[in-house]
């Protein structure tokens, strides 16, 4: 079962069976991801080196050696970039707004369910609400209503997204879960 679980998780993360259909596309996307991870830092470093070399020719003060002047300007430019980054993070707090926009633009952050969430609601939350409705007469109607709202929400999401349905059914089978399907 452990190996099956790794295959399901791998499939969810973009590995596994989906890549067998188009391994070239997968390989290319992995390379793009790798370049993106280092791209920001590398571009800053290369920009600082290029600026240091160009500025050295225009600087009236020199520290005796051309290369030493380039290194000192590189350290100065790196410090300016670092201080700007510190200000951006600590004082301007722009990353908070960026995360807000990221969540707002992500359909899975608000309306759509992820496969693990569907499994959790199907196996834990909906049955729990139905069980509590049997024992809590005061909140029975609310609990049953909420359980049905979640059941309908999941059912609609699975009907609209066949790939999501496939992944949930695959997880359901691999995990060997018992219980009715929604």
What's the domain count?
Answer: 2
Please give the alpha-carbon distance between the first and last residues. Answer: 24 Å
Task: Count helical runs.
Answer: 8
Number of strands: 0
The ordered H/E elements are: HHHHHHHH
| Overall pLDDT metric | 82
Main pleated sheet = none
Helix content, binned percent: over 70%
Written account of the structure:
By secondary structure, the protein is mostly helical. It has 2 domains: 21-105, no CATH class; 110-174. 80% of the residues lie in helices and 0% in strands. The protein is built from 8 helices and no strands. The chain has helices at residues 2-12, 17-21, 23-58, 66-91, 94-105, 115-135, 140-160, 162-174. Helix 6 (115-135) runs antiparallel to helix 7, helix 6 packs across helix 8 and helix 7 (140-160) packs across helix 8. The chain is elongated. The two termini are 24 Å apart. The model is unreliable at 1-17 (pLDDT under 50).
Which descriptors apply to this entry?
mainly alpha, 2 domains
Nutshell version of this structure?
It contains eight helices and no strands. The protein has helices spanning 2-12, 17-21, 23-58, 66-91, 94-105, 115-135, 140-160, 162-174. Helix 7 packs across helix 8.
Indicate the topology.
Blueprint (H helix, E strand, L loop, with lengths): L1 H11 L4 H5 L1 H36 L7 H26 L2 H12 L9 H21 L4 H21 L1 H13 L8
Helix pairs in contact: 1-8, 3-4, 6-7, 6-8, 7-8
């Amino acid at each position: 079962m452990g190996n099956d679980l790794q295959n399901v998780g791998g499939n969810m993360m973009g590995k596994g069976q989906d890549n067998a259909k188009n391994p070239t596309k997968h390989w290319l996307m992995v390379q793009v991801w790798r370049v993106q991870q280092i791209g920001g830092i590398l571009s800053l470093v290369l920009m600082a080196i290029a600026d240091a070399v160009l500025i050295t020719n225009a600087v009236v003060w020199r520290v005796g050696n051309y290369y030493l002047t380039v290194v000192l300007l590189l350290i100065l430019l790196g410090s300016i970039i670092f201080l700007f980054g510190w200000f951006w993070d600590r004082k301007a707090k722009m990353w908070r707004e960026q995360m807000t926009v990221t969540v707002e633009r992500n359909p899975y952050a608000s309306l759509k369910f992820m496969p693990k969430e569907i499994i959790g609601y199907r196996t834990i939350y909906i049955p729990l609400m139905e069980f509590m409705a049997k024992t809590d007469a005061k909140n029975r109607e609310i609990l049953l209503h909420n359980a049905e709202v979640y059941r309908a929400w999941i059912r609609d999401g699975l009907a609209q997204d066949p790939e999501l349905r496939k992944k949930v059914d695959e997880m359901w089978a691999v995990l060997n879960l018992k219980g009715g399907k929604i």
